[in-house]
Amino acid sequence: MPIFQKARELSVIQSVSSVLGWEQETYLPPAGSGFRADQLSWLAARGHELATSDAWQADLESAENADDGNDPTLTANLRELRRQFDRATKLPVELVARETSATSLAKNAWAEARRNSDFSAFAPHFEPLLGIAREKAELWGYEGEPYDALLESYERATSTAALAAIFDGIRPDLRDIAAKAVEKSSANPVSLPPGPYPVAAQQSLNAKIAEDVGFDFTAGRIDTTTHPFCTTLGPRDVRLTTRYDESDFTSSLFGILHETGHGLYSQGLPAADFGLPSGSSVSLGIHESQSRLWENHVGRSRPFWETWYPVACETFPQLADLPLDDFMAFLHRAAYSPIRVESDEATYDLHILLRFGIERALVRGDIQVKDVPAVWNETFNDLFGFTPENDASGCLQDIHWAMGGLGYFATYSLGNINSAQLFAAAMQNPDIAADAQNANYSKLLDWLRKNIHTHGSILDPSELIEQATGKPPTPNDYLTHLKTRYI
Amino acid sequence: MPIFQKARELSVIQSVSSVLGWEQETYLPPAGSGFRADQLSWLAARGHELATSDAWQADLESAENADDGNDPTLTANLRELRRQFDRATKLPVELVARETSATSLAKNAWAEARRNSDFSAFAPHFEPLLGIAREKAELWGYEGEPYDALLESYERATSTAALAAIFDGIRPDLRDIAAKAVEKSSANPVSLPPGPYPVAAQQSLNAKIAEDVGFDFTAGRIDTTTHPFCTTLGPRDVRLTTRYDESDFTSSLFGILHETGHGLYSQGLPAADFGLPSGSSVSLGIHESQSRLWENHVGRSRPFWETWYPVACETFPQLADLPLDDFMAFLHRAAYSPIRVESDEATYDLHILLRFGIERALVRGDIQVKDVPAVWNETFNDLFGFTPENDASGCLQDIHWAMGGLGYFATYSLGNINSAQLFAAAMQNPDIAADAQNANYSKLLDWLRKNIHTHGSILDPSELIEQATGKPPTPNDYLTHLKTRYI
After folding, report:
1. Which CATH fold would you assign to the domain A199-332+412-486?
2. What is the DSSP letter of A157?
3. Closest to B237 (Cβ–Cβ): which among A31, A220, A234?
4. Could you tell me the CA-to-CA distances from A293 to A259, A350, A445, B84, B374 in Å, in that order?
5. What residues of chain B score a pLDDT lower than 50?
6. Which of B218, B223, B274 minimises the CB distance to A31?
7. Domain coordinates of chain A in residue numbers?
8. Which residue among A259, A288, A295, A345 is the active-site one?
9. What ipTM was predicted for this assembly?
10. Stated pTM of the model
11. Which residue in A154, A271, B88, B433 has its CB near the most CB atoms, within 10 A?
12. In this predicted model, what pLDDT tens digit does every residue of B365-391 receive, in sequence order?
């Protein structure tokens, strides 16, 4: 079908960009970055041209007119291609160019403002980005409020109101769990025996574990970057990255378990449909559910370490002094941090609730950009019981806003919630649960393949969760999980 | 100027292909290669479309018409762009597609035929490639004979007759030098102390040396591949690769010196003209002159090792048992090998004379494809005094013919000849020569930058050599060099 050919061609273009982007983070020598930007911008222009072309539209319309409804996958593919096309063509070229230029300036201003811990230097660059986000929302359209349209970029078929209801509902429990977990940890502090934990040994252990839980190294690899990520360079080519801390081997290991979760999802998508919605991941909230499931529900579980701790002790002889019970306490330690990316499972979502509330209020116009530091600090204090020392460790810590990424943060907590619901549902199966007790996860992976990965982007995220678990998305399993583990 | 913009855009497309090609050789997981081919073929199609488009032609014609001849660089750029356009557009799409498909089949057939050492299994695939090469020659046009047009793909403004005259002229000397060098070596055999020479230590020494002779690691890097190469990914991004043999550290080191020579040329081209002829290398024979100069004239010289052998001895303690004199004898050892890529400086060109003669005879129709093994063995025996054991170590050893690369081999010997003429000319300068005696090559590099690199592709190769050395290209310096070193 011509429209599918075009969609596949677009995925070739986009995946070439992914190769260049991956290479930029892993190996590119510093002087090469200027020309790399030229290469990426040429590719982005070709992709945009194709995906918004008259020919694309004509092929899509022909396919829609020819669709007799007998093939639900085909119908769903056309529905999603239509949604993407409408969203892409609703934004005038002038606006896209203005956003590109504004984010490019804002990223530099943000880095500088963060260095000087001065939000007021970033505010004049955030203002136009907020304005552009509002313009985009109006052009895209929404049912409830403008922020709905921004969320849609990352999590389709959800609403601000629904998300706010979930987040408001769990807020008291999350705050309570966090406080108790932090108290428990500080009453019984545990630390790892001193390093060094050599990088080569970490790499070898990480690769063993990633392979054991199912990552296919003939169709993927692990490299080193400043910030860990997972990227897909082709239907059979998935790249994970992590960074190494020689004083704490669990930092790279949990980074790899997290990215392996993303990678298993990518490797489990229907390769033959690469480039079509049916071969693509459905949303960030579902993607993050996969990474969190392997990182937290598998990787921080006791059965996992009953098998792997002896291997870790062989790899790092200094662990001989640390009993498994203490190591588990180390993995389940909790502490309040002003910094999101340094926070633990027990406190993480408080950071998201904070950001979601501020973003929504900004887009609604309930608060102004200049109000952000005050609102941040006040809300932070309400959630954590203290105030960040300065803007750098407060409202300036994340790059997301400087990239125009309003609407993104919520998907982290959606991922946590989904991960718990999926894991609990899988564990209803006695075979999967029994194997997991022995750190054998092949049946769990099969379950995820069948219930999540193979569906690509055919179902909406909430439909996918309901079909997989027998109930609509709910944070109950997540709260139960946190309470069981942390209080 | 619009035509220059288009030429730069083409270089963006081609450099993206180079990134993907580099990544394919260095890091691509095996299952990713199928889709990588799709990505490369999409890019190749975009590049071909652009470089043969009506718009390209119109812009080129406008620029030619507007050229008042006052800027020789501009005029030369247009002349070269015209030459490239004419050559690209003279080949019908049907022929290009037929060649792509024929080489793809031939490469597999060649690998299989070489495994079984059976030229007759490769012959039916070589036949059509020879036919296509002849068709291309006719379409491109030539003055003397069809092989001229094939040479032109790699070495512009040269002729088969001129090359044959050079090669015929040096043949007796080369044969004599090789025979004497082999005899001398076998009378006084030297070998390296046993390994292992650890890979990490080799990498560190190689990088030190590459940096010391001028390779800019902020605009380049070294990775590991099965076959060493140098590739340019952008105006400030040059990649070298090598492979490691833990029983002989000189294998990777001379690989790196060779590729560093290519890399220094690439890093010395005018970066602001990247994508234009004035910012591009002029020919393979000049490119190879740069790699051979650093590999053989610098890297196999005694002054170089008077400085670097102590460093090597620190890096590899087992070298303490081997005096520098013996190490130099090891580097200057000569032996007849049936295999080109395993042969040494003293015997290498005999392999090229053999291939050049056969290619020329094939294209003229003086011999048939089926005659190749017999002609190969007979000529080989005449040059080396023995006959290869079988086709695998004879006429099937190289992949070039299976890739349709008729005309390529000659540039290896042209590179050797050019390297000696350039090195001898540079050493006429007392400062450069005095510094070289102390293994300080910054003035030599400056000389090459000024006389070769900065000229890009403005002058023809022979003009470039004459301007740099004060005389037309001649093999005399090369013969002198070989005689001095080897007999």
Report:
1. Neurolysin; domain 3 (1.10.1370)
2. T
3. A31
4. 11, 19, 11, 56, 66
5. none
6. B218
7. 2-90, 199-332+412-486
8. A259
9. 0.95
10. 0.96
11. A154
12. 999 999 999 999 999 999 999 999 999
